[in-house]
Structures are given as C-alpha cells and as structure tokens.
Amino acid sequence: GYEPLHVGGLPGYLAGVAHLAARLGGRPEDWRVQEVSDGNVNQVFRVHGPDGDVCVKQSLPYVRLVGESWPLTLERIHFEHLALLEHGRHAGRRVPEVLHHDARLFLIVVECLTPHLILREGMTSGIRYPHLARHLADYLARSLFFTSSLALPAEAKKAGVAAFCANTAMCRIMEDMVFTEPYQVHPRNRWTSPALDGLAAQVREDVPLKLAASRLKRHYLDTTEALLHGDLHTGSIMVTPEDTRIIDQEFAFYGPMAFDVGSLLAHLLLNFFSQGGHSTAEAPRESYASWVLETVEAWWSSFQDTFLRLWEEHGHGAGDPSALFTTPAGRVALQAERRAYLQRLWEQGVAYAGAELLRRIFGLAHTLDLERIADVDRRATCEARCVQLGRSLLVEPGRYRSVSDVTAAAREVVAG
Ligand code: SR1
Ligand code: MG
C-alpha cells in the first residue's frame, strides 16, 4: 500500500484524517502545500490552511540526496515516530508534537514550526540565539539520562534497546560514512578543491588516525547506553531567538551517549571555522565566531549541571550505584564517581567530534556553513582547519580534558 505522496495528492490525504483537516480549517482546495525537503534522506511538506498548518514527513525508498540508485528501507519513519514520543516524554517541547502516524504510507505529521529557521542557516547568517546553549543542554541531558540505565529499571532499558534494534539501515549509513569511507578511496567521497587532495591522501595513510576511527566504530557498534537522536547536527535543530526544537530523529537508536555529544560539538566547531570564510571588511565575523565558542562552553557546562541534577533527583535505575553509598564518605565517593562518568562522556564525545569533523570534509555529506563560502580557496582554508582540529580530537581526546581545552585549540588553529 505504500506510495510516495506528492504536492497535489496531500490535501486529499489530509482531508481523510479528521483531526488534521480540522486543524487546517476551511476546505482542501484552500490548503497550500509546499515541499520543504531539506535533509538528506526523506521528503517533507508544509501544509497551510486558513486555521493552522502541519508538517508532513515521509520516508522514500531511497536516499533523497543521491536518488534511486541508493535504495533505503522505509522503516526509518517508525523509529523517528517512536523517538519523538520517547524524547517528547522527557524533553517536552524541545521536540515537535506528533499529530499523526501512518504505518502504511510510512509518514508522520508533526506540528509546523513557524517562524523557526534551521539552526545551521541561522548561524551561517550570523544570527545569535541567547537561549540556545541552555536549551540544547536541557534536551540532551534529559533525552540521554532518562533513557539510560541510570534512570530505568533493567527490563525497561532492555525493552528500549529491543524497540530500536532494527533501525539497522540508518546505523549502517553512519558506520560507513562516519568511520570508514573518509579513510579509504571511496566513490562517495568528495571534497571542495584540489587544494585538499594532499590532506585527503594523508588521512588515508595516517595509521594512528585510522586506528582511532576503527576503535570508535566498534564503540558505536557495541554500546547501547541511551536512546540517541543519532544525527544531532545543526541541520536537525530549528530555532527562533526564543525557542529551540530538535527534529529529524530518523537515525534514533540505543547507542553511545557520546555520539550525540560529539556530533553537536563538531557542528558548532564547524560553524566556528566557517566564520572566517564569511567574514568581510564590511561585515566582520570575529565577534560572532567568539559567540559560537562561548555557546559551546555554556552548552557543556549547562549539560553537566543538568545531568548531575537529574542523576541526583531521578537516579533510581538499575545502573545507578547510590544505594551502595549511604554514609557521608560514601556520598563523597558517589559524587566523584558521577564526575568521572561525565569526564569519560566528554572525552569520548571529543573523539566522536573529531570523526564528525573529518567526515564532513572528505565524505559525501557536506554542510552549508562551508558550502556557502563562495571563494574556493578561502573555503579550503576553513576546511583544512576543521581537519587539523578533527584529527587531533580523534587521535588524542585525552588532551582535551575540559571544554575550554577544545575552544582554546579551535582559536589556536585559526590563529595559525
Ligand atoms: C546519505 S547522506 C546521510 C547523511 O545525512 C544525514 O544528515 C546523516 O548525517 C548522514 O550521515
Ligand atoms: Mg536529517
């Protein structure tokens, strides 16, 4: 019964779902449908009616970025639906409200986020978001903590792992594109300009780098710590100056918390490095670039505070050790253990951030922060900076004990 929907067919479909028709108001002929597909894999439409609007997202049987030559299973929308519900329970309005799920057509309908922009667009245009760091920290801490064994009984945690274990096609994309393809000659790889040919070749010959990437791939494959977003970059976040919403959960699965941490860190750094390419004498970007790094620091600091508070208040899961530490000395040991947990998460996140930075330069999926830099040489300079820091983060994450170690290194890379 599956068929991909088109602009012309959507009003007829939505008219058959009473609560969506009521939300839109008026008659189907009055509804305006716009295709707004922006991500790499699915198709997305906004539908506007006289009384309201909705957003329709549907799986295609292939990767949209590439086309029918790269077939992809349709099930990803079910995992996105499940993840939206689960993360919505913990992070509330940081994720969009689900209005409808159609298992036959492999589609979901969610609230339309208006007047939100994709964060990557906003940051590439130099817009500041004063609440971004706190909102991202809150979303990430809640979505990870409440789906982990720190909060859940063993049975519930294992049921969660089982519910998402079949999102294998999407995990396979990441396994290949993040941890493997950038380190070999591969037909999907591409980069901006011949100026990067030498760096790409160095990456393929770099034994410590390839060992670090392959170890991280095993960590990604073998860890079921929490329900991840699974593709948490600035293109999966929609914002206004007041609001922050996390979208595009089609890669959701139980994996290492550090994968989400590292992905977000990488894309904030990538935007920082792109600012040099957008800077002009009339509109310099130094101050904006500093804001980006301040946001990184504020985000991680707020994440730690929130995660520790959640652990203190809701740490009743099978993996929480607090019942063993009831004496005053025990409480001190427990606090140290919690800080060590976050330190390990940070350093693993640093390594994942390194892998993400590298694959966004040499792999198939690039980002508009860098692609919008019109001058190819300036762009290649920014990209080489991503590679320089990315390699160091991936090979020597232990050098970056704190978030300020990373932001200082990013500044040093730019200063040369
Ligand atoms: C086929 S392109 C897939 C990439 O786009 C998504 O945003 C993910 O990052 C994935 O690696
Ligand atoms: Mg996406």
UniProtKB/TrEMBL annotation:
Domain of life: Bacteria
GO MF: ATP binding; S-methyl-5-thioribose kinase activity
Keyword Lipid biosynthesis: no
Residues covered by the Aminoglycoside phosphotransferase domain: 33-267
This enzyme's EC code(s): 2.7.1.100
Oligomeric and partner information: Homodimer.
Family: Belongs to the methylthioribose kinase family.
NCBIfam families: MTRK
Name this polypeptide is given: S-methyl-5-thioribose kinase
